[in-house]
Amino acid sequence: MDAVIKKIPYGMTDFERIILENYYYVDKTQYIAKVEKVTSFFFFVRPRRFGKSLFLNMLGLYYDINQKDKFEKIFGNLYIGKHPTPDRNKYLVLTLNFSSVAANMDRLEETFNTYCKIVMDGFAERNAHLLGKEAAEKLHELKTGDALLGSLCQSAQNKGLKIYLILDEYDNFANNILVDYGNERYRSITHGCGFFRSFLKVVKDYSSSVIERIFLTGVSPVTMDDLTSGFNIADNYSSSPIFNNMMGFNEQEVRTLIDYYKSYRELPHTTDELITIMKPWYDNYCFAMKALKEPSMYNSDMVLYFMNHYMLNEDIPDNMLDANIRTDYNKLRHLIHVDKTFGENASVVQEIVEKGSTTGIIANSFPAEDIIKPENFKSLLYYYGMLTISGMEMGEPILSVPNWAVREQLYGYMADIYKDSADLYLETDKLVDRMKRMAYKGEWENCFTYIADRLNAQSSVRDFIEGEAYVKTFILAYLGLTHYYIARPEYESNKGYADIFLQPRLLQLPDMVYSYCIEVKYAKRDASDTEIEKLLSNAKIQLKQYAASEWIHQDKGTTELKSIALVFQGWKLVRVEEGKHSKKGSIIKSLPSLQ
Predict the structure, then answer these.
(1) Residues facing 485 on adjacent strands
(2) How many CA atoms lie less than 13 Å away from 6 in the CB half-sphere?
(3) Complete edge-to-edge strand list for the sheet that includes strand 485-489
(4) Is the pLDDT of residue 595 over 60?
(5) Please, which of 160, 279, 287, 558 could form a disulfide with 283 given CB 3.0 to 4.6 Å?
């Protein structure tokens, strides 16, 4: 039966190939009519790896006048094939993907124009039977993107034809310039006579005659704000509940996908088990306040990554986080603006790592020069998929870390922030070795002594580490960077118990022996011994409650749970205690004070 089973289209954006070569497709074609209904000029922002390029490729095939004869073959079994709109196969489709434009500032305009030349020459040749051969000939002497587009639009207008313009990754190279070269160089392409501004002005000029429909998408609304006077015709539907599920997979779609493959193959896990494994890693995205009651969205690329590995090996991937999801890592790291004073945006990331959420109004757009403002930085984290809408508090959206895949990236950001701001870091190989002994030998003392020694060794850290949040997030970030444990912070339990639960990765390392719950207490540098002992006493109580919780017993699996209390006085670790657990309760083992 495997001979006819559908292949998994991981990483694919060629819609025709997916349909005709027997790949699995989650049908999103019902959204074609919805997009048509709301506006002719549609602007839509989503994080990377959510299926934007595939959706746009599907749109191109649907609307392309040259694909009319293939309509039944490609779309016949899909929703839109059974419910076509009057606009099907009506347009000359021009698709531009600006991720193909290199971001070398010295050659950016040249690269942009060269890319436009290649795409538009091909467009003129494909449509020569409609536009006439002269349309292609007119392009021969033209070299700039705006001139090429203007000529094509004029040729189409002369023949009474309409264009559907698709702009994918419209903000890609512009955002790269912003990150790598700064605001001044960025403004040179988006303001005044900048080539990108001039190009979109041509789009606007012909939008009332030839360019009848536009679908514009990217990962942030930064550039749109800078181009407002040059291009202000697209309606932003990124936060519309109607389109919340247009890209990505909801849980029912994931279940249907798993059930399909289980119907062909005997697999070692049930559908519920696979959902339980994937959900905390890939789920929990919501892009509209009014869609909070609807099923949340999974990152579709990550689901396909998981299933591609799973169907090949019939086993859970060793790494639940696909390396491709880190595409925007360096962009965000730059925008944090780390310096020796631990900047505001670094504090935003720390708050999110410590508490799991923040609040803030999501800006529909903002100019590049305002991107470092904390309120806009939160919006940028949201648009990049690092935060998602989870509720409302005092009139503002609650923006939460959606899943473990994102949280692991945030741990990496925090580790970089501490290193850059105070030269405070742990050597990964030494940390991995210590955590291996934690996992298999129960020897946890050396790990926390190493962390404490690193904190204590850096005199510069004393300038800004004066608070529980700094100490906790430093420990949490590094404990979450090794492959032995999933470092789960307190907010995940909703019980107010221990600060960190080190959940063993038993799916990948079934022979692990120990798991840990850790309570971190912090006292100011001038705290008395009495205050420190009180903190330690409170930690014991919390650890006992934590260790008795039902979900901990479930998630620790076959491992033995160890409870560790850490008390810091300023940047020094001064007390450590371990709780030994038995069926009768918790036995506290006190270790020497680390004064």
Answers:
(1) 504
(2) 21
(3) 485-489, 500-504, 514-523, 560-569, 572-582, 585-590
(4) no
(5) 279
> What is 526-543 written as a DSSP string?
T--HHHHHHHHHHHHHHH
Rounded-to-integer distance, Cα 235 and Cα 32, Å: 16
User: Within its chain, how far is the Cα of 502 from the centroid?
Assistant: 23
Question: Pick from 192, 191, 193: which is nearest to 177 by CA?
Answer: 191
Q: Give me the phi and psi of 312, to 5 degrees please.
A: -75, -40
Q: What angle, 0 to 180 degrees and rounded to 10, lies between the N-to-C axes of helices 300-313 and 271-282? A: 140
- Which of 176-180, 184-188, 588-592 shows the lowest per-residue confidence on average (mean pLDDT)? 588-592
Task: Look at residue 494 in the predicted model and tell me its pLDDT.
Answer: 54
DSSP state of 290: G
CB 123 within 8 A of CB 92: yes
Distance between CA 61 and CA 15 in Å, rounded? 8
* Token representation of residue 231: 């291009």
Residues 6+ apart with CB under 8 A from 499: 472, 476, 489, 490, 518, 519, 520
Measured CA to CA, the distance from residue 488 to residue 499 in angstroms comes to: 8
565: helix, coil or strand? strand
pLDDT for residue 491 is more than 90: no
Reported for 318-325, long-range contacts at CB under 8 A and 24+ positions apart, including other chains, are 318/483, 318/508, 319/483, 320/281, 320/404, 320/405, 321/281, 321/405, 321/408, 321/409, 322/49, 324/11, 324/49, 325/48, 325/49, 325/299, 325/301, 325/405, 325/409
Alpha helices in 364-460 (DSSP H): 374-383, 404-422, 428-441, 445-457
pLDDT band at 374 (very low <50, low <70, confident <90, very high): confident
502-523 pLDDT, tens per residue?
A: 999 999 899 999 999 999 998 8
DSSP state of 177: H
Instruction: Please state whether the predicted TM-score (pTM) of the whole model is above 0.85.
Output: yes
More confident residue, 499 or 269: 269
Q: What is the pLDDT of residue 371?
A: 73
